[in-house]
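residues and backbone:
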Amino acid sequence: MAHRIDGSTGDVLTARLRTLTTRLADLEPDVRADRPDAVHQMRIAARRLRSVLRTHRRHLAGDHTGLEDELRLLGRILGRARDAEVLGERLQDHARDLPAGGDRERVLAELATWHAREAREARAGVIAALDSRRFRALLAALDALATDPPLSARAAKPAGRELTRTLRHEHRRTVERLAAAESAPEGTAREHALHDARKAAKRARYAGETAGRAARSFTRRMKALQDVLGRHQDAVVAREAVRGLSDGGFGYGVLFGREVGEAGFARELLPGVGKRAGRRVKRMR
């Protein structure tokens, strides 16, 4: 049975652009006030907007790559702050599990100092970005785009059929990247390929979110795949951070080994999640 989605593709796309643009702008005061999770939420809004522009290029007339680039830059700045927060907390939590005595307290103190420095520098970068003319220009451009999107002729087509094509394209891209990762050589090459597959799954998930309730099952499968691949990537990033901080002592060695184990566990989860993610995309109408 086909899933129903009402209106034209342009109707759905316009509603999505307006929702995300409002969300991004509304988060600015919370980010400035350093409220919990605000940076993360603004980063997600920027990523979703960029994904909409990339995924629906055929439905928007004109060239919007400049806007995509600005959203990518904002996402990176916000991402540094978010990553500093999450990575610092992760490593300190793991360090608290080290055996009492030895170098646990020293490692904890060094991680706390490193985390504070990274978070402080990343926070300064975020505030500088929000204070910039560039950010104000980005918000103005997004508002203009969302208020009156330059829809192409293709956007006038019924949303169900057109968005089914879009989801199938993003799904195929994700499956291909996952297959490429599975056949890549062990080591750095495979880790990079898995990261690429994660980015594809995320874009496919965002495409499903644009389609709404009709694509709920697809979105869930893509999110599950993204989560497992994200778990792997987080462990890889944490492992490399520990490598950079390590002085060769016992405590850092334990932390390094734990991250290697975390990455391995994520890889064990991947076949089952990948199989479910590979199911065909049901037609919407």
